[in-house]
């Protein structure tokens, strides 16, 4: 399949389109249009529609790629250090205009639409969340195999990730405030 050719035309097209979306968000666009992305990237609108189908799917692809590249879950064997590194990366990301816009796109993709229907990109977002959960679970499984009692992924999301995102959304505190305390809390309550 053409999508798997590293360095091929598909990879260059994807990179150009992703760069255009990130630049548009960084400039303050709430939701760029396919036309804006096409003009910025030099990639024809038809190609963008053929590859991603809709702007929401493209934005979700960019968001997931950015999260995986900029804030992957580390797995050094030191769970506290890994959780802190990951939390700082996520908080740093949502402090930027671009990172916040991409977080918003991911959140919108996982929220149901009016009438209880899933968002068009909900399945794509769910796949990303399963990938992220699996990354974290591998690290937690290693801690458990070594005789430790790690927290669950859900508990990490509730105690560490939720405050970061809530602070970013509502702006009542910096997203990176007290991350050491949050990580220590999740590790103590297991």
TrEMBL record:
The source's superkingdom equals Bacteria
Q: Which residues bind DNA?
A: 33-52
Q: Domain (HTH tetR-type): give its ranges.
A: 10-70
**Cited SUPFAM superfamilies:** Homeodomain-like, Tetracyclin repressor-like, C-terminal domain
- The answer to whether keyword Disulfide bond applies is no
Please provide the record's keywords in A-Z order: DNA-binding, Transcription, Transcription regulation
One Pfam assignment: TetR_C_11
What PANTHER family has UniProt attached to this entry? HTH-TYPE TRANSCRIPTIONAL REGULATOR RUTR (PTHR30055), TETR-FAMILY TRANSCRIPTIONAL REGULATOR (PTHR30055:SF148)
Could you tell me what this protein is called? TetR family transcriptional regulator
Q: Which organism is it from?
A: Amycolatopsis oliviviridis
Classification from the root reads: Bacteria, Bacillati, Actinomycetota, Actinomycetes, Pseudonocardiales
């Amino acid at each position: 399949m053409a999508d798997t050719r590293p360095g091929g035309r598909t990879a260059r097209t994807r990179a150009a389109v992703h760069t255009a979306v990130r630049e548009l968000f960084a400039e303050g666009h709430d939701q760029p249009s396919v036309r804006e992305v096409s003009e910025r990237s030099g990639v024809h609108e038809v190609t963008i529609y053929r590859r991603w189908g809709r702007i929401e799917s493209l934005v979700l692809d960019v968001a997931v790629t950015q999260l995986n590249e900029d804030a992957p879950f580390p797995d050094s064997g030191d769970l506290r250090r890994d959780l802190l590194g990951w939390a700082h990366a996520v908080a740093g990301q949502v402090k930027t205009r671009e990172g916040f816009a991409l977080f918003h796109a991911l959140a919108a993709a996982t929220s149901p639409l009016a009438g209880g229907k899933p968002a068009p990109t909900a399945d794509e977002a769910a796949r990303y969340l399963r990938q992220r959960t699996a990354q974290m679970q591998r690290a937690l499984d290693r801690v458990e195999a070594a005789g430790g009692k790690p927290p669950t992924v859900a508990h990490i999301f509730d105690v560490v990730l939720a405050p970061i995102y809530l602070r970013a959304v509502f702006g009542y505190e910096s997203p990176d405030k007290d991350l050491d305390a949050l990580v220590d809390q999740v590790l103590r309550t297991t």
